[in-house]
C-alpha cells in the first residue's frame, strides 16, 4: 500500500489539524466541521494529482485552449455519521462524483472490547470505478475494513484510494493486510498510540460528537 502523510510538509493544512485537536477551539462545532471539510478539500487536491487525465478543448470568449482534466469515474464512500464533513470537503472538489454512505458503529461488549456493526448500505455500482473510501479517524482500522468487506457485493473498483484525517500506525498496518496492495492511502497526520478504549492518542477525541453533539 502506498501511504502519503501530508503533515510532513509545512502548509496551511497543519493549522487546520491543530484547530481540530485543540481542546478549546474544537468546542466550536461549526469550526470543527468546517476544518474537517477544509482538510477534505486538501486531501482531494493532493490525491487528484494521482488520477488519470485527458485533454479537453475549452472555448473561451477569445479562443480555445487545450486543458488536462481528470477522467476517473469517482465514487466517494463515507461512513456515517462522523464521516459527513470529510465527505463534504472531498465532494466540494470532486463535484461530479457518485456517492455511497455506509453506517458503522462500535457495539461494545464491555468497557474496552467492541465489534463493528455495519448495517446501512447506499452505494452505486463500483465496477471499474475509482473508489475513494473516507474515514476521518482511522483508530483500529476495523470500521473501514468492515465497510470494504461489505462493499464487495457492489462490484470491483478499478482502483482504491483511502482518504483520512488522523490515523494510528496500528490501523495502517491492519489496512495493509486487508486492502489490495495497489491501494493508496492519503492521510493528513498519524499518531502512534491508541488508548484502552480504542481512541487515538493524542488524536482529538470523538470526531462524531465534536461535529454533531453527543449521543446516548
Ligand atoms: N473515532 C473517533 O472519533 N476518535 C478516535 O480517536 C477513534 C475513533
Characterization of this structure:
With 216 residues, the protein is of the alpha/beta class. It has a single domain, classed as Rossmann fold (3-Layer(aba) Sandwich). Helix content is 30%, strand content 36%. It contains six helices and eleven strands. The chain is globular, with a radius of gyration of 18 Å.
Concise overview:
This protein has 216 residues and is an alpha/beta fold. 30% of the residues lie in helices and 36% in strands.
Number of helices: 6
Q: Please give the oligomerization state of what you see.
A: single chain
Largest sheet: 7 strands, mixed
Q: What is the general shape? A: globular
Q: Based on helices, strands and strand pairing, what is the structural class?
A: alpha/beta
Amino acid at each position: 500500500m502506498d501511504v502519503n502523510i501530508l503533515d510532513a510538509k509545512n502548509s496551511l493544512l497543519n493549522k487546520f489539524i491543530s484547530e481540530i485537536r485543540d481542546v478549546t477551539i474544537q468546542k466550536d462545532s461549526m469550526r470543527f466541521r468546517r476544518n474537517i471539510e477544509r482538510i477534505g478539500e486538501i486531501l482531494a487536491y493532493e490525491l487528484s494529482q494521482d488520477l488519470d487525465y485527458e485533454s479537453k478543448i475549452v472555448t473561451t470568449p477569445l479562443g480555445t485552449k487545450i486543458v488536462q482534466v481528470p477522467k476517473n469515474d469517482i465514487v466517494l464512500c463515507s461512513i456515517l455519521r462522523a464521516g459527513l464533513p470529510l465527505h463534504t470537503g472531498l465532494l466540494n472538489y470532486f463535484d461530479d462524483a457518485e456517492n455511497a454512505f455506509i453506517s458503522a458503529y462500535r457495539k461494545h461488549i464491555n468497557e474496552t472490547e467492541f465489534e463493528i456493526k455495519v448495517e446501512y448500505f447506499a452505494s452505486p455500482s463500483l465496477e471499474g470505478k475509482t473508489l475513494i473510501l473516507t474515514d476521518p479517524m482511522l483508530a483500529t482500522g476495523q470500521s473501514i475494513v468492515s465497510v470494504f468487506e461489505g462493499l464487495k457485493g457492489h462490484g470491483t473498483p478499478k482502483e482504491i484510494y483511502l482518504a483520512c484525517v488522523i490515523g494510528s500506525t496500528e490501523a495502517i498496518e491492519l489496512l495493509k493486510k486487508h486492502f489490495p496492495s495497489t491501494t493508496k492511502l492519503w492521510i493528513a497526520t498519524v499518531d502512534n498510540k491508541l488508548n484502552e478504549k480504542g481512541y487515538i492518542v493524542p488524536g482529538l477525541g470523538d470526531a462524531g460528537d465534536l461535529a454533531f453533539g453527543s449521543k446516548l
